[in-house]
Specification:
Strand content: 25-35%
Order of helices and strands: HEHEHHEEEEE
Helix content: 25-40%
Number of strands: 7
Distance between the termini: 34 Å
Number of helices: 4
Radius of gyration: 15 Å
Shape: globular
Structural class: alpha+beta
Largest sheet: 7 strands, mixed
Length: 147
């Protein structure tokens, strides 16, 4: 499992800081497995992209805060569920020249009546040499939390 035991608490603290109007610092939340890290670097190398040098996953949270908490009105607990599901060992890497993602192929019942496939998006440039856990997306979330 790539997330550290205290990852949920660190992610929650950063999101709570954003809710309170603060500016959280980057925190270390996990590490990619050797096989996934090698697969990402192979793809990046084959496509003329800079290879990654660190397996460490870092989190700041501003993008997730703006997209999931503000725009979609999800709670912090909802976002933690989305991330945990997407980071599951059965999740599959999705690699393109414009993005790196990890998606759980198994649907999860969320709290709003949806069956979703959770996906996390990694940002592999701005926090280099680390991989930033940039976004979480519940694919298939037709029913959003109420206003």
């Amino acid at each position: 499992m790539p997330l550290y035991e205290n990852a949920a608490a660190l992610i929650r603290a950063n999101l709570e800081q954003l809710v309170a109007g603060g500016r959280p610092k980057r925190v270390d939340v996990g590490e990619l497995e050797d096989e996934r890290f090698a697969e990402i670097n192979h793809f990046r190398s084959e496509n003329g992209l800079a290879v990654l040098t660190e397996k460490k996953l870092v989190f700041i949270g501003k993008h997730i805060y703006d997209g999931r908490l503000i725009k979609d009105r999800y709670s912090i607990d909802d976002v933690l569920d989305q991330i945990a599901s997407a980071i599951d060992p059965c999740s599959v890497l999705q690699l393109t020249e414009t993005g790196t993602a990890l998606q759980n192929p198994n649907k999860r019942a969320d709290k709003y009546g949806n069956m979703v496939n959770d996906r996390v998006i990694f940002e592999c440039s701005t926090c280099r040499p680390w991989i930033q856990l940039w976004s979480a997306i519940p694919i298939g979330d037709k029913n959003k939390p109420p206003k």
